[in-house]
Structures are given as structure tokens and as C-alpha cells.
Specification:
One of its GO terms (biological process) is transmembrane transport. This protein is mostly helical and about 300 residues long. The protein is built from 13 helices and no strands. It has one domain: MetI-like (MetI-like fold, Orthogonal Bundle). α1 packs across α13.
Length: about 300
């Protein structure tokens, strides 16, 4: 009887939180799924059910395809650049700076993550500026031709990847440092007695034991990469200064279809595609970690 009362109390205690979560998270997802099946035009009273017509139209929309390709490249570029750098920097901070300076380094590396996106993008836009930017000044100093970083389609994507990685790096480093602090010291001492060097211990002990941390950081980094918007909107501009025209990303395409073209149902179908992609990639990452754990 006492056990049953505890269960009832626990369920009643978490019900308000579950209700808020369902309203804030689950309801918008369900409503987006519903809208994607309608031709939902803000300016029209008639909003007919069209089934999967919006999704079929997406497959032939070159703007959506371009946005999907650019977003995928940016997301995986940020993932590939951030994870190894974060792991190495976290190892250096943890093993080399076990002193008062460790807190300073952790704070310094985390600052870009909490800086507002728009001011950060404006600062990097100045760095990448073709005429006045310090990056081109540095290149010309070494005899390398200046580049039009923000006006070339390929270089613009690279610039966005660099900016997103710079912002994501601090969070990943701190998570890895927490992981390092929870690793058993006895294993490293045993490896050292067996003649293992620092790099060998890092490769054969640290990396395998940090797989759960790597999974979490990878999922968070990949999801944030697929949701990139402000960086592309501010950083990548065309010659006339219109933001976001040089590099088209999924979130920007959704916003334009919703609030400029008033095609809410069509934009909802894009959001559903983005949800499916992120969910599929997350499940793949979990399955890869499970298979490696069994091996």
C-alpha cells in the first residue's frame, strides 16, 4: 500500500512538468505534422487537405534542395571540425593545467558559446570582409591573394562552418572535461606502469571510455548544425547587402515560405523533413555507439 501511494505521489508530482512539456514541445510538433498535410495559405480562407502533395513538391523545388544540401554540409562540417578539436583541447586543459589557470581556460573557451549570435556573426563578418578584414590582410602579408570570403558560394559555406564551430567548441570542451574528471585514474596509472605513453593512453583509454560523452556532444552539435540560421542570415550577404542570400539554409527557407510567401503548410512540410533527418541521424549515432560497445 505504501509503495502504491509513493507511485501515485510521484506521478502527480511530475504531471505539471509533463503537461508543460507536452504543450511546449509535443503539441507544436503534432500541429506541424498536421499543417504539412494542408495547403495552408495565410491569405486564403480555404485551406484544403492535400495529403502528401507538399512533400512531393519539395522534391522538385531547387531552392529547397539547395537549402538541404547547404545545411547538411554545414552540419557535418561543424561536427567533423568540433568533435576532434574539443576532445584534444579538453585533454590538454585537464592534463596540463591542473592548477588555478584551469578555470580561466575553461571560462575563456566557453565565452563564445554564450555570446549572442548576431553580434558574433557581425564580428566574424568584419574578419572575413574582402576589403577591410584582417584575414585577407594576413593572407596578403604572406603573399597569398585575398579572397572574397562572403561572396563565393563555397567559401561562404566554409565561413559559416568556422563560425558555428567556434561557437559550439566551448560547450563541447566543457562536457569533455567533465568526462575526463570522471575517468578512473587507476587505469592510467596501470597503463603508465606497463610503459604506455600519454598519446597511447589517450587513444586506447580516454577515447573508448568517453564514447557516451562523444555521442551526446555529437548529437547536440549535429542538431544545432541543422538548425543554423542567424549565422547564414547575418554572415553571408550578397553584393547589395541583403542578408542570407548567398547561402540558403533550411530554416531560412522555411521562414521565407511562411512569412514572405505565406505558404505555412509548405513550410511545415520542410520542418517535418528536417525533423525526420535529425531523428534518423540521432538514431544512427545511438546504434553505432551500441554496436561499438558490443564489439
Amino acid at each position: 500500500m505504501l509503495k502504491r501511494k509513493r507511485w501515485i505521489f510521484a506521478i502527480l508530482a511530475i504531471l505539471p512538468t509533463l503537461a508543460v512539456f507536452a504543450y511546449v514541445r509535443l503539441y507544436p510538433i503534432a500541429d506541424t505534422l498536421r499543417l504539412s498535410l494542408f495547403k495552408w495559405d495565410i491569405l486564403s480562407k480555404n485551406k484544403p487537405f492535400v495529403g502528401l502533395a507538399n512533400f512531393r513538391e519539395l522534391m522538385g523545388d531547387h531552392l529547397f534542395i539547395d537549402a538541404l544540401v547547404n545545411t547538411t554540409i554545414i552540419a557535418f562540417g561543424v561536427l567533423i571540425l568540433t568533435i576532434p578539436m574539443a576532445l584534444i583541447i579538453a585533454a590538454l586543459i585537464f592534463h596540463r593545467t591542473r592548477s588555478r589557470m584551469a578555470g580561466f581556460y575553461e571560462t575563456a573557451i566557453f565565452i563564445p558559446h554564450v555570446v549572442s549570435l548576431v553580434p558574433a556573426a557581425m564580428a566574424w563578418k568584419w574578419i572575413f570582409d574582402a576589403r577591410l578584414g584582417p584575414l585577407n590582410a594576413l593572407l596578403t602579408f604572406f603573399g597569398i591573394p585575398a579572397q572574397s570570403w562572403l561572396f563565393d558560394p563555397v567559401l561562404s559555406v566554409i565561413c559559416i562552418i568556422v563560425l558555428c564551430s567556434w561557437q559550439a567548441l566551448g560547450y563541447a570542451v566543457l562536457i569533455y572535461i567533465v568526462g575526463f574528471k570522471n575517468l578512473p585514474v587507476s587505469l592510467y596509472e596501470a597503463a603508465k606502469l606497463d610503459g604506455a605513453s600519454g598519446p597511447q593512453s589517450f587513444w586506447h583509454l580516454s577515447i573508448p571510455m568517453l564514447k557516451p560523452i562523444t555521442l551526446y556532444v555529437s548529437v547536440v552539435t549535429l542538431v544545432s548544425g541543422f538548425n543554423v540560421y542567424a549565422q547564414a542570415f547575418v554572415l553571408a550577404s550578397d553584393a547589395q547587402g541583403a542578408p542570407g542570400r548567398q547561402v540558403r539554409v533550411l530554416v531560412l527557407d522555411m521562414l521565407e515560405n511562411s512569412f514572405r510567401n505565406y505558404r505555412v503548410g509548405y513550410a511545415a512540410s520542410e520542418a517535418v523533413v528536417l525533423l525526420v533527418i535529425v531523428l534518423a541521424l540521432t538514431l544512427i549515432q545511438f546504434s553505432m555507439l551500441r554496436e561499438r560497445g558490443k564489439a
